[in-house]
Amino acid sequence: MIFNNILIADTHRAKRVLETSHPPVFYIPPQDIQMQYLMKSPLTSWCEFKGEAHYYKILVDEKEAQNAAWYYPNPTPAFSGLKDHVAFYPGLMDSCSVNGEKVQAQKGDFYGGWITKNIVGPFKAILLLLWSACIISTISMSAVSCAAQNIAPDKPHHTGRGFRNPDLKEDHGFSQFLRWQWQRLWKNIPSADTYNFPLASNDPEFLRSNRLKKTLTWIGHATMLIQIDGVNILTDPHFSERSSPVQWAGPTRLVPPGIAFEDLPPIHIVFISHDHYDSLDRQSILKLYHRQNGKNTRFFVPLGMKKWFENLGVLTSIEMDWWDEYQMDALKIIATPMQHWGKRSAFSRNEHLWASWVVISEDFRFYFGGDTGYSRHFAETGKRYGPFDLALLPIGAYEPRWFMKNHHINPEEAVQAHKDLNSKKSVAMHWGTFILTDEPLDEPPRRLKEAMENEGLSEKEFLVLQHGETIILE
Prior knowledge:
Structural class: alpha/beta
Shape: globular
Number of strands: 20
Strand content: 15-25%
CATH superfamily of the largest domain: Ribonuclease Z/Hydroxyacylglutathione hydrolase-like
Number of helices: 11
Helix content: 10-25%
Largest sheet: 7 strands, mixed
Radius of gyration: 23 Å
Distance between the termini: 54 Å
């Protein structure tokens, strides 16, 4: 098992990296550190911790260091009982010995690296927990991992044990994830306080009483409120402070939800695109189900997720495979392909399917693209169910391309998807809310505008909304 750790020496600097989605900060009490030798190189050192090999990278440059770690203030309530083993104090590692010569670490140095062996006892438990929270929106200590249901091995996206992307020969593995996290240590990724996204004002009273107008409100990330003929629909509802299995660690929301949860109108339909923590938020699901009349809400989920909802006590989920159709009153609902992956726990992968969604009424068609890489599924969906009046398409979380390309479209690919779907209007989502990947959070709209100009599209054809902004759909 491989774990990751970073120690931060200076409190002031540590607090400045609070919002970054990087390996966690922790301090090993000096009495537990046994540094016996050091192998010199320009950037690395080896030390020994009670017989276990540690590999540390030293970052002295302040700009690099600001993006090196999370900072947990002391005490962290969840671990107060284990403070004798690992305390969350910003601390300075002691010194190592090089050929008998003592080498003192400098105040302000940042230390990080890979612990390459299991460590027993409470310390191991802490590392497991922190490492789980650190894998952005994918790996957790989580909840329930369920085997996929109704798997049909004859279908190209079914494997017999789970699901796959039929257009991809191979997916990135854990070693590639570690490579990406290692490369992030050397990048100047802007911190959360770099951004100031405005929150648009809307009219919750109008949205709660509206039965006639078709509207769209961007709540944040991939959470949209769509109103069609008196039916209120939420996509990938996320109202929590963090995109994480726990609310004391993980990527933090930069902008409050565009509509406060308490101000939501009655929700009739919820669409879930996949099981990652930025799209399937446990607390938001529970709050929706247990609010007034929440048990009338229908949760449309990809194949394999129904058991997860049932274990949560949510008994109104409807599980669908790609191209399945479901009639709900005057609305036809179709689960359509997207190119992504699933991972809800450290011990499962692709046990739950991922899906985009199509909704067709008598006079309106819309497409919710979820979180996806670019593939022929856009053109196929457009051919089967287009043209669309509205498409909701992701434009963020796309860098670095060598790692993200298969599973996250960039703005240029979003424009092509808009064309493939034959959509009259598209609206951007999945950007500007959580720091999940390497591109600046305000870059996607700029690149989208340039891509639209290159393709001869007007700004009205592909909109970028403010958080909380409501538009009337003609």
